[in-house]
Amino acid sequence: MSRQPHERPLRFAMLGAGYWARYQLAAWQEVAGAKCVALYNRTLAKAQRLAEEFGVPRASDNAEELLTSELLDFVDIVTDVGTHRQFVHLAAQHGLPAICQKPLAASLEEAEQMAADCRAAGVPLLVHENWRWQRPIREVRRMLNDGSIGRPFRARIDMISGFPVFQNQPFLRDLEQFILSDLGTHILDVARFLFGEVQSLYCQTHRVQTDIRGEDVATVVMLHNYSQTTVTCNLAYAGNHLERECFPQTLLFIEGTAGSLELAPDFWIRLTTSGGTVSRRFPPLLYPWVDPAYAVVQSGIVDCHRDLLRGLTDPGYIPETAAADNLRTLRLVRDAYRSARESIAIA
Question: pTM of the predicted model, to two decimals?
């Protein structure tokens, strides 16, 4: 699909009208070149309310009929993970590119089949994975690429919080696989984004809260191929009280042969070399629609959208989070669960 700047914006339908849909819609309105013309939700009233709020012309509770009757260029799927395969397959049947919320599917096998369906239909499958698009994380990547600390050899990525995440997304409480599947897809993707592909992996998990089905704590240790960096990812939504609550900030500490790099609370990046320490703050852009509690995450949605849209309009460009790339992250999640199950106790 190729589009000249003077041509009309790409028309898309958004499937889903839950918590994240309103922020996805608001972020799309910041991006020139795309326009939401229809909203689907299985509860029609929810679709109608969101459509009225954002000036979307049509709301429907029939996704098949909507995709058949509307002139669309792509579909943005923001439903729960259990319906992703159904809607991606529906988009492929109609010859429409699909952008799908993460995690792409409930299992790696299902995600691989979704990618195969889209390849067979000759349409792109893109993944809305916005964590790597956070402003401070992009800056850390730039500094690593510049060689600011030499060759990185060890790093820690922390996303540890007592934030009541189940209040906004209660369905997470019932997932058999929780933190690695939900948050781990973000954090392991960030590890790949910063340090490249993974050579080996080890994982331990815990369930601290007793009223949930899945694990709410995970520790993943990886050795990355090209950089030969050992990376430890610490993940927790254990409901505990922390002296320093940074939700939803991701904190980083990276050691290199010529210095160290820290992404500290409140978006401070500290670069320490033989010349001393230089500190600079990289806060997220604050759009009017951003929820302050999620600012660093939600503002990154805009840049994520821009990259995905470029992938739909520039034939020579592959978005960072195309399905082929995201499947590599999902394989890490699969391997982390397998490692946690198969860990051997030493007497």
Answer: 0.93
